[in-house]
Amino acid sequence: MTGSTRSTPADRLDDDDYPAYTMGRAAEMIGATPAFLRALGEAKLIVPLRSDGGHRRYSRYQLRIAARARELVDAGTPVDAACRIIVLEDQLEEAQRLNAELQAGSGEAKPNAQA
């Protein structure tokens, strides 16, 4: 086996999906409480991985989602509505990405409204 095919713990530092943060640290990083993170988990917005001991572990990607939820909640949006907004924002972003790919792949110019 060559050294280039082995994964080291340091390789995970750039992985947005690696569950590197404990609940306490994750809550601290986004300025929320562990109860807020549990509420996001109950709403299925983010589903933390569990350590061998059963403790919740969060990735950087999940923390970005949780931080967005916190922004919405801080602005007065109920948690369940904030979760739905985030899901819809994600779906819209994905649809826009797919649309851009389809337009780029078709090689067709956009119709000119003045033609």
TrEMBL record:
<dbReference type="Pfam" id="PF13411">
    <property type="entry name" value="MerR_1"/>
</dbReference>
<dbReference type="GO" id="GO:0006355">
    <property type="term" value="P:regulation of DNA-templated transcription"/>
</dbReference>
<dbReference type="InterPro" id="IPR009061">
    <property type="entry name" value="DNA-bd_dom_put_sf"/>
</dbReference>
<protein>
    <submittedName>
        <fullName>Transcriptional regulator, MerR family</fullName>
    </submittedName>
</protein>
<feature type="domain" description="HTH merR-type">
    <location>
        <begin position="20"/>
        <end position="88"/>
    </location>
</feature>
<dbReference type="InterPro" id="IPR000551">
    <property type="entry name" value="MerR-type_HTH_dom"/>
</dbReference>
<dbReference type="GO" id="GO:0003677">
    <property type="term" value="F:DNA binding"/>
</dbReference>
